[in-house]
Design a protein that fits this description.
Length: 179
């Protein structure tokens, strides 16, 4: 007699949506100046450059630096956009911000304005801005956004900022939020 032993069907191999790491989480100091708490993630592609810059800054600035904004969800970008009239700094249209792509972060205290409204770098800014620049992060002072630093998503495999924003937001929702 042959006894048929029912075979368990082989489990379907599900591709892990988190296998390809898009964002890297850092332990950053929140400048806690009335802004919502930061979401301390950057694109994995720039994580090493970011870490190298932070280590150099921590050696040069006693106590290190704080952050007001790092990664932004689409919802948070929409809030900022809706309130942009009250923001002294430029706000990108939701879906296009480099913050939504994990390619930007904001550090307060980089510059003040003189009587004519021109940006003047503070001593902290004169230390921090060149270090970030050496590691691939451009200062936003060039386009009147003094707390802002950014890297270029097109140099890290993305067609544009919108594509990076979609990838980073998808990854954040699936693989980071609530974990
Ligand atoms: Zn910014």
């Amino acid at each position: 007699m042959i006894i048929e032993i029912p075979q368990e069907p082989a489990p379907q191999q599900q591709p892990d949506p988190c296998a390809n790491q898009v964002l890297t989480r850092f332990n950053l100091t929140d400048s806690s100046d009335g802004h919502p708490p930061i979401t301390p993630c950057v694109q994995n592609a720039i994580a090493q450059d970011f870490l190298d810059a932070l280590l150099e800054i921590n050696g040069a600035v006693p106590g290190g630096i704080g952050f007001t904004e790092v990664f932004r969800t689409r919802a948070h970008q929409q809030e900022l956009w809706d309130n942009r009239a009250n923001n002294p700094n430029p706000v990108a249209r939701p879906g296009t911000s480099r913050h939504e792509g994990g390619f930007a972060f904001d550090v307060p205290g980089m510059a003040t304005r003189d009587r004519r409204g021109q940006l003047v770098q503070t001593p902290l800014g004169r230390t921090v801005i060149p270090i970030f620049a050496n590691h691939g992060f451009a200062w936003g002072g060039a386009f009147n956004d003094p707390p802002h630093f950014q890297a270029d998503p097109t140099q890290h495999g993305y067609a544009n900022s919108a594509a990076a924003a979609t990838a980073a937001n998808d990854y954040y929702e699936r693989c980071i939020r609530g974990r």
